[in-house]
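Quick one: co-fold with glutathione.
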Amino acid sequence: MITMQIYGTSRSRSLRVLWLAQELGLAFEHIPLDWQQCGQDAAYLALNPAGTIPALVDGDFVLAESLAINAYLARRDGRLWPQGEQDEACFWQWTLWASSSLEAPYLQWASQALWLPEAKRDAGQLAQACQALQRPLARLNVALQDRDYLLGSAFSVADLNVAGVINGLRRFDFTHYPAVADWLQRCLTRPAYLAAARLP
Ligand SMILES: N[C@@H](CCC(=O)N[C@@H](CS)C(=O)NCC(=O)O)C(=O)O
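Sure, here it is.
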């Protein structure tokens, strides 16, 4: 019996949660609410007063924030959850870093490089966004130089949360960050990611 619902279209931060649900083979109902609708929909606002997608409904329990939902689901399942206190601490380090230091410059870059119609793009703002991404990408590149994944040799929810924040960055010029390019390629060619990205 399906007791879990994931709200949010895959063309949003909900993709991170849909990706994890596919990795773990969870049974869930997908409600592909759009980011333009979610703040106006009274029934959804009653569920998630933040009015943002994604949200997870698990029986009586409702949770918002994509990266927190992933922590909840992965910890409960165990398979992609870090083993041991130090790896768990590193998972939180990477997840909080992705949210606080990586996401804002990425969104700035993505709107200029991918989302805005050509006529509305601004070369100066794109250059500024590329500049702002240098520091977090250099940090990620150093971390990935001697390992395939953030916590070692195996893919974990730490990789999923960080790669899920910068999934559109595949089209970035990675000349100076080859380890990030290889890692992102490994993460974003996983069948579970591709399956989640095909959802509405
Ligand atoms: N930090 C939140 C951000 C959620 C968020 O802002 N989602 C966007 C869609 S990607 C949204 O719902 N936008 C509509 C709005 O803010 O009204 C998370 O990771 O879940």
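If it helps, The two ends are 22 Å apart (CA to CA).
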